[in-house]
Amino acid sequence: MPSESEHKLIESIYDVTIDLAKYSDLLSLWEAEFLRPVAGTSEMAQNIDPSIEAHVTRASTVLDMTQAQNEATPSLRQLVIENTLPIFMLSVDKEISLVNDAALDFFGFEAGKKLPEQAFEPEDGQKIDQYLNQLDELEAGRILAIIQPQDDEGEASLLFALFKVHDAETTQDYLQISAVHTVWNDDVADIIKNTFALSDAEIDLAQRYVAGEKLINIAEERGRSLNTVKTQSKILLRKTKLKTQSELVRLFSALQNFGVQNDNGKANDAGIGKQRHTNIIEREDGRKIYYEIYGDPKGEPVLFAHDIIMGTKLPKKLIGYLYAQKIKLIAPHRAGYGYSDVYMGPDRLNNFVEDVSLVLEAEKVDRFKILGFYAGSVYAFYLAIAMPQRLIKMRLINSYVPMTSQAQMDAIPMPIKVLVYTAKYMPKLFPFFMHVMAAQVKRLGHDYVMKEYFKDSEFDLKSCQDPDIAEFIAESFNCAFETGTLGTSQTAIDAIGYDWPSLLKENKMIVEYFHASESFSPVDLVKDIVQMQESFSLKLFKGGQLILYENPEEMLKGL
């Protein structure tokens, strides 16, 4: 029979399925009921009341059912308002019918008013008028065109895609105008370079345009005057037979987003906002591996070992720094994260090494460095042991550390302590927490989860107010649960439950620990790790878990 405290815990488990905001209450009860001195934990974990596991399983099912109901028919308004990129809707009479906060900040216009004539280039304004006049005849959901707002300085800005959408609630058709990401793609770059006979310097300038860099910044980085860069820009435009920088960015976007022919004559899968889909490897067993490339495509290769929740998405500030430092950051999605297929077979860490080897082979990389972030550090260490001849060094930002003593466990803040403890000693129950977090992201929104996840750090909460970082975190949350919670749960269990001490003792590689004062892993625990090997070093910073994204200059200096 469950005890009185277990009855309260069971009630709390079901309460969370109804009210996700009661998650903190569940963690407190969970800690009181289960967290015991580490020395006797393994025996305690084997003697958990079977009814607790049964209730957790049922509660997970309830979450899945309610999630399916919530996802059944999301309204058009909800989709627009929750989008972190600028997006708005136009009715047939050119009235702004719906606009989100991002578009309000970007353009300054509000719902209920006519679209200002000066909002877009005259040519693009004509396209908007044309599609509004033909709205009844157009196919919904298909990309109609790529347009760009007016820019007096002629410098790169956001690109926008035009779609026809149908609102089931109002039974009206609208023209949707949505911001899209434009990212560098080597295949498209080669086409532009070969077609227009561009030099390496000119293709580099085109690449910087696509990255959204301003002419003054390009001049400073190249050590040239602004007039010199402007002259180079005019030569580039003359060669490509274009009039403005905006047209060059649009040419690149059109080639990338509307399909580039590959060697088999088939269009590559590189849709709007789908940078991650431009790099796909299919293994012999049929499982797909996705990876992303950030920074300078010809720069020094650095492999990014991502965290469990904070994955391969990067904010613009960090991407810009990678370009400036000539770093090619290769960011594979681990199995079950983002767009890589789940792998639940044996030897998952060895399977991860195989995935990375395939990615490195595809990118023609021999020797490389590793940048590991939090829980990704266990994978970084495993790669160091598996590929000692190929790895130059690794740098770990806010690294996770092994929890092998009571003092270490007590040093971790809530709720991380409960999650780590459960993943390590009660792995069968751990997926329920991932179910709850995934449901929170979808039902309570990214802002709510951000504040809860980083509530113990003033540095991180302030960082989350930066729209660029907030957008990146939101995308990270989405990717963490893209394939469900199974892969994310198993990744956490593997990373936390692995025999860390043996990894640390076997490793002879140069390891640079860069650690922040408000990190999830207490500084004192990291100091203990650094003392284990002469090749380990530690550099401390004032900041929080998000310091890599808030202060990339310091975190990547000398990498």
TrEMBL record:
<dbReference type="InterPro" id="IPR029058">
    <property type="entry name" value="AB_hydrolase_fold"/>
</dbReference>
<dbReference type="InterPro" id="IPR000014">
    <property type="entry name" value="PAS"/>
</dbReference>
<dbReference type="InterPro" id="IPR000792">
    <property type="entry name" value="Tscrpt_reg_LuxR_C"/>
</dbReference>
<protein>
    <recommendedName>
        <fullName>HTH luxR-type domain-containing protein</fullName>
    </recommendedName>
</protein>
<dbReference type="GO" id="GO:0003677">
    <property type="term" value="F:DNA binding"/>
</dbReference>
<feature type="domain" description="HTH luxR-type">
    <location>
        <begin position="195"/>
        <end position="252"/>
    </location>
</feature>
<dbReference type="GO" id="GO:0006355">
    <property type="term" value="P:regulation of DNA-templated transcription"/>
</dbReference>
<dbReference type="InterPro" id="IPR016032">
    <property type="entry name" value="Sig_transdc_resp-reg_C-effctor"/>
</dbReference>
<dbReference type="InterPro" id="IPR036388">
    <property type="entry name" value="WH-like_DNA-bd_sf"/>
</dbReference>
